[in-house]
Amino acid sequence: MPRPFRLKTNFSVYHIMIRCVDGIMLFKDDKDRERFLITLKRYKKKYGFKLYAYCLMDNHVHMIIDAFGSDISRVMHGINLSYAKYYNRRYKRRGHVFGDRFRSEIIDKDNYILQASKYIHKNPRKLRGWSDKVFQYPYSSGPIYLGDLDDSFEILDCDFILKLYSNNDKKKAVKEYLDFMLVPNSEEEEKQQEAEYGFMNQKCQYKSEKNIIVRNMTADEVAQFVADYIGEDRDKIKIKYVRNITEAKAITMLFMVRFCEYKIKDVCNYFGNITQSRVSSLCSLGVEILFNKNEYKNIIDDFLKHCA
Description:
By secondary structure, the protein is of the alpha+beta class.
């Protein structure tokens, strides 16, 4: 039977689950869990996605990932392949580590993000010895949200979820988020959440309608940074038919969307006379350029330092 078509865009938030093949444990000890988080950090830096929640179980992983202009299939392929190579090398085995493709749903509303994060952060209750201390489990983002654990791997992006509760009072946001997670579910709600967030039913797919947290960086400033980086005139980046400036245009659009969180229509307005599909295509090209061209290997780090 052919595989079902996977609905995806480069600008969506995904609830993702990856699971090991039958007969093995995905994480046999804490060294394995730490290696997975190190791998996650490396690919997060490489592709620039955002991680809003995660939980490492014995045989599977839940994550909420904002693709942020990256191809989610390429992201997950890289993470899974890297960890599988480590796993097989450490345990002197061959063959697949992960079962089938990763499972995913595009998140359509803020409420889904909250409910899915609650499900993910309460997952440790299924692990032996953690049923009564789910928010202390060190390989989940739950304790980081609540301030009980440092984000030592520096991979979590907490602001998006917390700002759904309070835009400028983090203590209030943390308290309200904890209150939300502590609300007990009825037996029927537990079954429904297990079906929806545990991927027992994958028929529904959604279009992303997430709110945006905008960084204080204008489009002109982004374009100026890219122009200075490559030694080109900023105004050329905005001209439609300058062929030798396509790479700079693609990187500028990608940075506007990925790091400064402009909407696609805002990018269209800035560049003028360009379609949303063309912007999406150029952002994807920007990802390819950063992935394949050595001359741009430091541009992300330099840009983040510039706009900090």
